[in-house]
Design brief:
The chain has helices spanning 22-41, 66-72, 78-94, 98-117, 122-143, 152-163, 172-186, 263-287, 300-308, 319-329, 382-405, 414-430, 434-445, 447-455, 460-471, 500-518, and strands spanning 2-3, 10-11, 18-21, 51-54, 60-63, 145-146, 188-190, 193-195, 201-207, 215-217, 219-222, 234-243, 291-294, 312-314, 333-334, 346-356, 359-367, 373-379, 407-410, 479-482, 487-490, 497-499, 522-525. It is of the alpha+beta class and 543 residues long. It folds into four domains: 1-17 and 526-543, no CATH class; 22-146 and 409-521, GROEL, domain 1, CATH 1.10.560.10; 148-199 and 380-405, GROEL, domain 2, CATH 3.30.260; 219-250 and 263-369, GroEL. Helix 8 (263-287) links the parallel strand 12 and strand 13.
């Protein structure tokens, strides 16, 4: 690569390296980011469309969930990967609003492109966007309403709002009730406040039946079967042992050779192994357990002795499931069988094996204080249960976020319009070129109600103009797009409710990635040769 100077060219990059600088680099990054945002924009809202993603093995995913679509899309460009990253962060932090975050980022970059064309420096735009992002979150907090964990009806509305547009829509009310009940079950009241560990809500999915047949189990469902046919399949008043060691004879860590000169020695060796396995089972029996969940394997002979003792056993249980079982039943996970005693056992009113969708599953129900629960999702096909699982995950995230922040806002584009209106007023107090960036930020936020209007078949321009006029009025802050009736409506009356943190996180994430992309003025893409493969002509795909 040659860099021109006043004296002579200086070569500082290897041959075959591609470099894009200045306005061209910004234009490429903005173009890519806009394309990614455009890909997910049509999934926004209850009338949003689904995407079908087919991977290289031919596996198909049909989803309306922004995080899933972006994660499954095979993106190569670094700017596109940045947008995928903010979607992941949004999903991990608050569980919903991924599409909103990406669409806002795309809209901010689209508006920034016009400002760049007008000769405004990227640093000025970035400064204006930062001011606007901070102010937007401040405005959102001011207009938000309060909510508490006791307001079960409002929490249910939040869950239903999160699930709208996904395949679980026809059963969203029953699923929302299940989600709220599950969260209330695992919520712990501490001196610091309410603590909700989302990992304590286990999701199990099985094809068959319908979404309405999904249920909340106050306990744990293990997707395994009881290992031996002679073991009891239904145990009432279960005393549960959780064992994190194999009920098998361990092989020696170093290679060992045993010389046996006559059949009696071989029989003695086999008898000794049997006796060791019987001793393990006796330890469990002595502690008073009648159900064993083992994280590792269980030898066939050990299974036989367990079955004779009337003890049901499940093997190769996942570590995460063992932790949930411990939380739900009050059992302690034991790593040495010798240490097992009755104080280490957990309790459940009922442990039973059931056939669900043709597969055997073990249900642990009626626990003393189930701080871990299971939502069993049913559906007609694999695609339906997968999408319902994503919808339930979003609902869990949003309800948890609402309880933690204690504040909610209305959806349907109403909060974005309210923030946009107040941001324009704020822009006039700033002045300078940053004012233009703040106004562009306000315009970008209006992309949400615009997209909702488009999915509902409404005229987007007329909708935005009418919303702007109504939000200037006294009681306009709740007005948004009613996609079902194709008109503006009061979102609080329609119970379209979202947690404040979903919106503030989406605005912050979208602004941050837009600022990062705007600050890039040089793309240097090394050749394949520089990585030790290929030829100089094989340049990177980042051009």
């Amino acid at each position: 690569m040659v860099q021109e100077t006043n004296q002579k060219p200086v070569i500082f990059l290897s041959e075959g390296t591609k470099r894009t600088r200045g306005r061209d680099a910004q234009a490429i990054n903005i173009l890519v980011a806009k394309a990614v945002a455009e890909a997910v924009k049509t999934t926004l809202g209850p009338k949003g469309m689904d995407k079908m993603i087919v991977d290289e093995l031919g596996d198909v995913i049909i989803s309306n969930d922004g995080a899933t679509i972006l994660e499954e899309m095979d993106v190569e460009h670094p700017a596109a990967k940045m947008l995928v990253e903010i979607a992941k962060t949004q999903d991990e932090e608050v569980g919903d609003g991924t599409t909103t975050a990406v669409v806002i980022a795309g809209a901010l970059l689209e508006r920034a492109e016009k400002l760049l064309d007008d000769g405004i420096h990227p640093s000025v735009i970035v400064k204006g966007y930062r001011l606007a992002s901070r102010k937007a979150r401040e405005i959102a907090t001011q207009v938000a309403d309060k909510i508490s964990i006791d307001d079960k009806a409002m929490l249910k509305n939040i869950a239903m709002t999160a699930m709208t547009g996904k395949s679980g829509a026809e059963a969203e009310e029953s699923l929302a009730t299940i989600v709220v009940n599950a969260i209330m079950q695992v919520a712990e009241h501490t001196k610091e406040g309410i603590v909700i560990d989302k990992d304590m809500i286990k999701l199990e999915k099985k094809e068959g039946a319908t979404l309405s047949d999904s249920q909340l189990i106050n306990g744990i469902v293990i997707d395994k079967e009881i290992v031996h046919a002679d073991m009891p399949k239904r145990i009432e008043r279960a005393k549960i042992a959780l064992v994190d060691s194999a009920l098998e004879i361990k092989e020696t860590e170093t290679d060992a050779e045993i010389s046996i000169s006559d059949p009696e020695q071989l029989q003695a060796f086999i008898d000794k192994e049997e006796a060791m396995l019987k001793d393990m089972v006796d330890q469990i029996k002595k502690a008073g357990a009648n159900v064993v969940f083992c994280q590792k394997g269980i030898d066939d002979i050990a299974q036989h002795f367990l079955a004779k003792a009337g003890i049901a056993a499940v093997r190769r249980v996942k570590k995460s499931d063992m932790e949930k079982l411990a939380k739900a039943t009050g059992a302690r996970i034991i790593t040495r069988l010798k240490d097992l005693n009755k104080e280490d056992l957990g309790f459940a009113k009922l442990v039973q094996e059931k056939k669900i969708g043709g597969d055997a599953m073990v249900f642990v129900e009626g626990c003393r204080n189930p701080k871990s629960v299971t939502i069993l999702i049913r559906g007609g096909s694999e695609h339906i249960v997968d999408e319902a699982e994503r919808a339930v995950n979003d609902a869990i995230g949003t309800v948890t976020a609402a309880i933690k922040s204690g504040k909610i806002v209305t959806g349907g584009g109403s909060i974005e319009m309210e923030i946009a209106m107040k941001l324009r007023d704020y822009a006039t107090t700033i002045g300078g070129r940053e004012q233009l960036a703040i106004e562009s930020f306000a315009d970008a936020l209006e992309v949400i109600p615009r997209a909702l209007a488009e999915t509902a078949g409404m005229d987007p321009i007329d909708t935005i103009v009418e919303l702007r006029a109504k939000h200037r009025g006294k009681d306009g802050k709740y007005l948004g797009v009613d996609v079902y009736r194709g008109k503006l409506a009061d979102m609080s009356k329609l119970k379209v409710i979202e947690p404040l943190t979903v919106k503030t996180q989406a605005i912050a994430s979208g602004a941050e990635v837009a600022e990062m992309i705007l600050r890039i003025d040089d793309i240097i893409a090394g050749s394949a040769k520089s990585k030790g493969k290929g030829s100089p002509s094989e340049s990177s795909e980042f051009e």
